[in-house]
Structures are given as structure tokens and as C-alpha cells.
Amino acid sequence: MPPYAGPPTPPRSGEIADSLRLMIYLGLAVALIVLDHRGGWLHQARQQFSLVVQPLWAVAGWPGQAMRRVQDDAGTLGQLTEENQRLRQELLLSQARMARLRTVAADNERLRGLLDAAQTSSVDVQLAPILDIDLDPTRQRIVVRAGSADGVRVGQSVIDAGGLLGQVIETKPQQSSVLLITDPAHAVPVAVVRNGVRLVAYGRGEGGRLRLGNIPTSSDVKVGDELITSGLGGRFPAGFLVGTITDLSPDESRAYLQGEVRPAAQLDRGRDVLLLRAAPPMAPAPSAPPQ
């Protein structure tokens, strides 16, 4: 038999109030649901409330929108950077190709000039690539890839598309050394194209120029006159362009004129030269006049 628990405890007043409050809330909720279902006035209230709080929602969404915009901008910037790099590479490649095409065009033009010079000279010529060049003021020479094994011999004249370049002074089986007309030790008999006045042009070394010495003041020689090889001495065939007189002035004695000549040959550029195979045997060169 269970022990006696005593009389039942009456409910507290607070619990009764809570129960009544809950019942009231439930009744209100049911009433609101029924009224909203029939009249829809709660829906209108929600719309009005949404209009009121919409600016707050927009403000609350700004950080997220800003973050997404930053992410989108970062992605776009990365794509633009990659595309810019790719376009720069394509541009550099295109520029390199254009430079190569210009070089090929220049080479074709240069070879065409050499071909024209060979056809105009009416002598047998041999094309020789330039291997090395020495334009020191006291030593003006080039080395070409053609030697005794190719039939090259000492004394052969050398020209390019512009005119007389020099002469062969040393041969080896596969290459030869050419003394340029601007070398201080070089002299070439020339004639004025305009009237045939004979002169001797000497190499200066410095500045890539030739000089004329001991010109009588009575000689009909002018600045701008073109000079060609005269053929005297048998060293160089006659008729090859040597250069143009750029300056005439009295020497120290005032009894003669001295002149400066700009060579017609491209001494400081070009890749190939022409060796004249019909060159005559080597003859003594005119001695340089006293300085």
C-alpha cells in the first residue's frame, strides 16, 4: 500500500494566467488567419511593411554587393591583364616579323643593285659575302668569303652597287683581305666625269673620306663633280664610280687646291661585294703625296 502523499496542491495563480494568455494568443492567431484568408488585409499590411523596410534591406545588402563587385572586378582585371599580355606578345611577334620582312626586302634591293652593277660593268664578276670589317682610322680593310680556291688573286678590284670599294691584297684558300679605298695607304687614279680632268684620290682613314692633293688652281674642278676610275696604271678598270667632291680649298702654299671626296661605295654597310675577275695584273700604285 503506497504511502499517503497528502492533500492535492491547488494550481498557482501564475500558471492560470499563463494558460489564459496562451489561449488568448492562440485565439488571436486563429482569428487573424481567418480574417486574412477572407479579406487579405494582412497581405496589404505586409506590402506596406515591405515598402518601409526596403531601404533598410538595400543598405544591409550593400556590403555583399560591394564584395561581389570587387570579386567581379578582380576577375575582369585578371582577364584583361592576361589578354593585354597576350596582345603584347602578338604585337612583338608581328613587329619582329615585319622587321624580318623589311630586312629581306632590303637584302633583295641590295642584291638587285649588285646585279645591276655587274651587268653594267660588262666584266666577269664574282659575288663574295663580307666576313669581317676593320674601319680603324689607320687601317681600313674587310675580309670576304672567297679565296684562292675560288680563283681570287691579289690585285683584283672590288666593287659594290655604289662603286669602287677597294682591291684584294691577300688571299687564303677560303677568304681574302680587301684594302679599302679609304685606307691611308691607298691611292686610285681618277677622272672628273664632267670634263675628264685626271686626279689621284688618296685614302684619309678618318671619317671614311678620300682626299685630293696638288690640284692646280687653274684646273676645272668643282664641288659636286663626280669622279670615276681613269684606268691609268692598269690597277683598276676605267669607268667605275669612285665618289663625289664635297669640298675644295687652297693648301698652305696657296699654289694648289686640296679636296675632299665622299666615296660612292657603301663602306660601312652591306653584306656582299663583287670581285672583278677581269682585273689586270697588279701594277705599282701612285705614291701618296707628301703631307
TrEMBL record:
Kindly provide the name given to this protein in its UniProt entry: Cell shape-determining protein MreC
Q: Which GO terms describe its biological process?
A: regulation of cell shape
Against PANTHER family, the record matches this protein to: CELL SHAPE-DETERMINING PROTEIN MREC
Q: Which organism is it from?
A: Lysobacter daejeonensis GH1-9
Where is the Rod shape-determining protein MreC beta-barrel core domain positioned along the sequence? Answer: 132-276
The UniProt record lists the keyword Iron: no
Cross-referenced Pfam families: MreC (PF04085)
* UniProt keywords, alphabetically: Cell shape
Q: Name one GO cellular component term.
A: plasma membrane
**Taxon lineage:** Bacteria, Pseudomonadati, Pseudomonadota, Gammaproteobacteria, Lysobacterales
Q: Which NCBIfam families match?
A: mreC
Q: Which family does it belong to?
A: Belongs to the MreC family.
Gene3D superfamilies referenced in this protein's UniProt entry, alphabetically: Rod shape-determining protein MreC, domain 1 (2.40.10.340), Rod shape-determining protein MreC, domain 2 (2.40.10.350)
InterPro entries, per database record: Cell/Rod_1, Cell/Rod_MreC_2, MreC, MreC_beta-barrel_core
Please indicate if the UniProt record lists Membrane as a keyword: no
